[in-house]
Amino acid sequence: MALTGALALSLMTGCAQGGAAGAGSDTVTYWLWDSNQLPAYQACAKDFEKRNPGLDVKITQMGWADYWTKLTASFIAGTEPDVFTDHIQKFGQFADLNVLEPLDDLGIDESAYQPGLAANWTGRNGHRYGAPKDWDTVALFYNKKLTEKAGLAAEEMGGLAWNPEDGGTFEKAIAHLTVDRNGKRGDEEGFDKNNVKVYGLATGGAGDSDGQTTWSPFAASAGWKYTDKVRWGTEYQYDSKTFQEVVDWYFGLAEKGYLAPFTDYTDGANPPNAQVASGRAATAFDGAWMISTYYGTKGLDVGTAVTPAGPTGKRATMMNGLADSITKNAHNKAGAKKWVRYLASDECQKTVGGYGIVFPATPGGTAAAVAAYKKKDIDVSAFTGPVADKKDFTTFSFPVTDYAADVYALMRPAMQDVFANNAPVKGLTKTNDQINFILGQ
């Protein structure tokens, strides 16, 4: 969600004052959005309170959309929490608006976390604004019943490759998994692409500016990068020939009838996991945060596979990591720093990992999560493998730049136009010029 001009003006002129309303000096207020993680952090809070007599942690959980709306509104009203779960695409703008507390004095050791996670939370000014919390990667979920019926073994699903010319074995696989209303598969003569019963690949929408669970694994495995620098780039590269070829091929799968159409996706109502669970789609790219959802769906026998190898010879996945940030006007700043330091510790992250919901940022926390998933008979190697194997995999981060909300506002309709209306991909060059103009201001 974009910060409005009014909000930006209010924050930059210092109108937001006072910290979280109703919190006592012995209370630390903490906001998060994932209900699945709430029990794990309640357990951490209980241990933290034992270690810090006199300090209480008050946790508030709300859904993703409400979370960001209420958080930004709280900065205006002066009712912001002491600590909140931060997202890499949000923190840059929050830091620029001076609503985050620098965390340089917490003594965060970057080597104590999975590579790259801590570095992402350093602002352009060199100050740290987030303590590493967890990480996730993307893999291909598939309905075993449908893949077995199509004669596709797990080994084949895990060994797929693609290219923008003919789609490679990946396109062949999802074409074969696609079935029309008459029982014809996508690779059979007489297939009716206008009357599809089961799509080979679920849609995750247009992917907007990052394509985390849509086109990004393909673009990255073709050698493309979002910006000219790993962090705080000054030029986006949506005008790249490579990028536009990838997007043209990817959304072209919908034209062929293999990828569920744009209209099948409704954020919150019909996401990829729902399409797979309903039998509308055979496979879906999705993030590690969805593991428990897929495997916990009654009647769905699901498997996972690594992303397809691309023209570079490597498989690619975004590796995102959340962090905990402290607000500039935190009511209990001293308590907040103690809480964030504890949240970033191996003790808390092992506790979180033990719930088998996410992969915590420390190696110890990750190991605890892998063990917890194993107890549930869930193989998570499709998600952990890319982090450990740098020879065959490449991982990359969300683009970290200024004006992230503006980039999103420009790219979202442009990408939707390509997917939903078959707009020429060359039109993205104009959008890219507009974005780089804003960054150059």
UniProtKB/TrEMBL annotation:
InterPro entries tied to this protein: SBP
Domain of life of the organism encoding this protein: Bacteria
Family membership noted in the UniProt record: Belongs to the bacterial solute-binding protein 1 family.
Transmembrane segments: none
A GO term from the CC aspect: ATP-binding cassette (ABC) transporter complex, substrate-binding subunit-containing
Protein keywords: Signal, Transport
Residue ranges that the Swiss-Prot or TrEMBL entry lists as coiled coil: none
GO biological process: one example: maltodextrin transmembrane transport
Gene Ontology terms, MF aspect: maltose binding
Stated name of the protein: ABC transporter substrate-binding protein
Signal peptide start-end: 1-18
Species this protein is from: Streptomyces dioscori
